[in-house]
Amino acid sequence: MKTDIEIAQAATLSPITEVAASIGIPEDALECYGKTKAKLTESYLSELSDRPAGKLVLVTAINPTPAGEGKTTTSVGLGDALKRLGKKTVIALREPSLGPCFGVKGGAAGGGYAQVVPMEELNLHFTGDFHAITSANNLLAAMLDNHIKQGNELQIDTKRIVWKRCEDMNDRALRNIVVGLGDAGDGVTREDHFSITVATEVMAVFCLAKDMKDLKERLGRIIVAYNKDKKPVTAADLKAVGAMAALLKDAIKPNLVQTLEHTPVIVHGGPFANIAHGCNSVRATKAALALSDITVTEAGFGADLGAEKFLDIKCRTAGLKPDAVVLVATVRALKYNGGVPKSELSAENLEALKKGSGNLEKHIENLQSYGVPVVVTLNAFSSDTKAETDWVERFVRDKGCTFALSEVWEKGGEGGEALAREVLDTLEKKESHYHPIYPDDMSPKEKIETVAKKIYGAGDVSFSAKALRELETAEKLGFSSFPVCMAKTQYSLSDDPALLGRPEGYTLSVRDVYVSAGAGFIVALCGTILTMPGLPKHPAAEAIDVDDEGRITGLF
């Protein structure tokens, strides 16, 4: 059996100009990066803003397990299938982070015969967007420390600096560091920290900004520290906005690539819905909507994280209204949630399947609470038995959802046609009544409690003293109307990765809170979640190589 990278490398790609032309994009609207990648020009993006939008379909999943769910694979295969059925379709995805590529999760280009290509370039550097975001973030950090060294005119309290440096790599050694060591000319000695690039506020600003003007306004509102009078100090106060925007000038243009079946894919913005808002850029999604009858997009990790943030943050901020949600599950993942170890998931086990389906049930209920029609799909594995898939189908239909099997990994768009037909039937016959689960005027503390209880199933929420102080500060500074961005483990509905299935009645722990004023949300750190991941004992990087002809191997 061929690996994902072998399948991708054997593919024949169309020139990106032809892919663009298939949805009416003229060649002069492209800034090409070689023959198979391009960015959309600013002038063309402005033209698209006046066009009517097509239908919007969100793809999400149950909580991720070591058994795999295939959310991106399903998104790609569904887009290919809709195109096969004659629908003008564009897929809108997030860009992969280097952290998972070299860590444990691997790439984020889909899998099997439902992939985005060029696969290696997409997963490694792509068009340099993340490097630009990293540079802009670290420029602000450098200007902050330089301001303090050069006399500290803004009277910044060095004990209340909240801005972190970043890099797009899993490097636990940089979580907590000390800067400014050495001679007097080397700066002020202080504690500092690193986050992974995709978890930074610059990434969130990048993803939520509608144009350059909005980007600069959001960058200017970023809070980097507090002064000795406990007032916020911003990027605008440091006069850093113009230079940061200059670094992001090209990066904010969405990228156009293709699937193995030459369906157009707009890829832009960052992942990590466990520690960030986990969605591709607003610009990418809106461009896709203007160019298609149907846009297929996705949100990171399980529906409790990515979909919740898509529906409560991104849609609220951008004025988007999804028409349907596809919820991806696998028989193997449901059995894992039912207590079966990974080594035994190939054996039929209806009891474990029934037990683990509580996780699927909770995600269905959560998505239905937003008023959007739900289609559940099982990403098929060869080890699945008919008894198992039949049971899941009955379970799903009893919950008021449409159901379809997906075989896109093995068959590409052809294997997704059953799912595509159910999605089309849903779009035609079921009306979406999308609404967020909490109003703007609810207090930040109540918003956190609402997500914890309604979406996660918590019985109570415990706030640390520091979290309560920061919530009080946020309200005093006038940020009460902001939505909340919950940072927690992706492996469980709770903040404890060991609690599988459908945990209920537990106490969710919120250890810290901070304001992302530029992004326009308040972040709540739950449990032991970290904004700089680490590498596993045997990282994926150990298997990646490149031969004498420049051919990459080992990437998945």
Question: Keywords for this structure?
Answer:
556 residues; alpha/beta; 12-stranded mixed beta sheet; 4-stranded mixed beta sheet; 19 helices
Could you describe the 3D structure shown?
The chain is of the alpha/beta class and 556 residues long. The chain is 35% helix and 20% strand. It contains 19 helices and 24 strands. The strands form 5 sheets. Strands 1, 2, 3, 4, 5, 6, 13, 14, 15, 16, 17 and 18 form a 12-stranded mixed β-sheet that branches. Helix 7 (129-149) packs across helix 8. The longest helix is centred in the first third of the chain and has 21 residues, at 129-149. The radius of gyration is 23 Å and the shape is globular. 55% of the residues are buried.
Biggest beta sheet summary: 12 strands, mixed
What's the β-strand tally? 24
Oligomer: single chain
Per DSSP, what share of the residues sits in E-state strands of 2 or more residues?
15-25%
Tally the helices: what do you get? 19
Which regions contain 5 or more consecutive residues with pLDDT less than 50? none
Shape: globular
Helix content: 25-40%
Distance between the termini: 14 Å
Radius of gyration, in angstroms, nearest whole number:
23 Å
Overall pLDDT confidence: 96
Summing up helix and strand content along with how strands pair, one would put the structural category as alpha/beta
